[in-house]
Amino acid sequence: MLHIISSSPYQTQAFQQCVPLVTENDAILLIQDAVIAAVGQNSAFEAIKNTGVKIYLLAADLTARGLGERVCADAEIIDYKGFVSLTVTHETQMKWG
């Protein structure tokens, strides 16, 4: 399953709600304001990192927020083509607000 989180960790509990449902073959994609979690020491990002699954960040959303070079090295930055590839690889997706 592909878990897509779109809200800032400072606005919702999406990260905390997502973590218990993540399984071994899942992936997590942070888009829109959720990419903010990948900057600095953020407990929400640490929680998803500790699941052990692959974490992706949408490059366009990082750029739009001026965060391109400041993100954690534990996540892979992808473009829209990569986003589409993830949706093909993971037929089931869950969007977290």
UniProtKB/TrEMBL annotation:
NCBIfam families: sulf_tusB_dsrH. GO terms for molecular function: transferase activity. The keyword Transferase applies. Gene3D superfamilies: DsrEFH-like. This is Sulfurtransferase complex subunit TusB. It comes from the Bacteria. Keywords: Transferase. It holds the Pfam family DsrH. One of its GO terms (cellular component) is sulfurtransferase complex. Signal peptide: none annotated. GO terms for biological process: tRNA wobble position uridine thiolation.
